[in-house]
From TrEMBL:
A Pfam family per the record: Pkinase
InterPro entries cross-referenced by the UniProt entry: Kinase-like_dom_sf (IPR011009), MAP_kinase_kinase_kinase (IPR050538), Prot_kinase_dom (IPR000719), Ser/Thr_kinase_AS (IPR008271)
Domain Protein kinase residue range list: 1-241
UniProt keyword annotations, A-Z: ATP-binding, Kinase, Nucleotide-binding, Transferase
Name used for this protein in its record: Protein kinase domain-containing protein
PANTHER family: MAP KINASE KINASE KINASE SSK2-RELATED-RELATED, SERINE_THREONINE-PROTEIN KINASE BCK1_SLK1_SSP31
Record-level GO BP terms: MAPK cascade
Lineage: Eukaryota, Fungi, Dikarya, Basidiomycota, Agaricomycotina
GO molecular function, a single term: protein kinase activity
Signal sequence region: none
Amino acid sequence: MMAVKQVEIPQTLSDRNDTRQVTVVEALKFESETLKDLDHPNIVQYLGFEETPSNLSIFLEYVPGGSIGSCLLKHGKFDEEVTKSFTGQILDGLEYLHSKGILHRDLKADNILVEKSGVCKISDFGISKRTDDMGGAMTAMKGTVFWMAPEVINSQKKGYNFKIDIWSMGCVVLEMWAGMRPWNGDEVVAVMFKLYQAKLPPPVPDDVILSPLADDFRRKCFAINPEERPTASELRRHKYLTLPDNWVFTGFT
């Protein structure tokens, strides 16, 4: 069994002049080009690409457990060990992506798939970006605002690099702790203002009690200065992610 992502190719002149339709097609082509060279257990597996006169299709492995986002909607906030396990796996995938010169740029719970065995796979590379210089700067404002780092909002001034994925990783962990999206209750414009002007990270909901190690992990992800944020490799070694001996994923409780 496989999953298929398919878009229609604009046929009429008006469709070909429709920026939204053209962007969707280009994003799928780019996603195919990005995924075909990747091979990692925590990245969704690319199986093929097909172009017909009317459609473009990407064939991907089918991940039956749904996304972290859908699991949170169904089961609520995760147990601490599940959050640690998923976070470590996502960081393994991010470390691999960054080593290949790829910024994901849209990391969020809805874009991370979960096998029924508890294996996580990063997906949805439609707005990812390849760069040969991992210290270099991108300037396009891409991503979803609630998971977006401050330097992306203000990208025309200094640009940004792979550290934006670390901020988004912090947002995903916050989602798993809280059972809801970051900045829950705030609208897009309000969040953009808080990121751009106040340089604030998403708040921890009142009912979420963090251990000192968990809070240190959060603070490292949400360092306002991207140079102070750890790499995926460094964050993967954080003591917060240590799991009990012989722990195995047995589902959501």
